[in-house]
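Lab notebook: predicted structure, single chain.

Context: the supervisor wants predicted structures on file for every construct in the current expression panel, including those that have not yet been purified. This is the next one on the list. No modifications to the sequence; it matches the entry in the shared construct table.
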Amino acid sequence: MKDRYEQYCFRFDTKDFFPGTWEKMTPTEQSEWKKKRAAFEKRRGQKRTRRRRRMSGDAILVTLAAAMAIPTLVLSQMAIWESERILAEGIPEPPPRTASAAEATFRLAEPTPAPAPTVNERYAEITMSDEERRELLAVIYLEAANQSAEGQQAVAEVVLNRVISTDFPDTVHEVIHQDNPVQFSTAENIGIATPTEAQEAALDAALYGESILPTDVVFFSRKGENSRVYSTIGDHVFCYGYEW
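Prediction complete. Output recorded below exactly as produced.
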């Protein structure tokens, strides 16, 4: 304890505070010195601990900074190498683009076009131009625009039945414009007719749908062409052909 007193005496300035050496100190002075030494060593230990912690924290920060800088340096060097390679070899052509799986699936899922409707078998031999179709639509409009869908289809079937009959001309145009006597008085007004979707639907139903009239029903009128009546649809009486 005496040696320690001599070692720390100057630090505490005990030469002025305590006269003489350790042997000359009273027990009270020795006890007070021990307290002061213990407090001093505690402060010094705390100071060393703080210094070690600060040095440890600085080392961690330096290590983290170095670790974060390494990838950046590696990427920068790789970019430099890639630039040098491109300059030496030239820019390569991009690979041909191939359809992705989603695009291929989309193309496979595209709906196929609906097949063309099949013409009613009994009218399969009729060849009708676009102009003839417009004329027939006009006749349906002029003769039966105020009739039901069934009545309009029946008028279309009368014209088509005449085309396939041996007693009438062989084309839609000739049937509509047949004279001596005139068969369709509305033919002269075809140019001013304005057919609608209703007449389109009636003609398509006659060509591609279920038939309403037998093929030998070739007349319709308000009062009936003859006594051979098949049926009455709306305002029209539909009749079979004459028996000669």
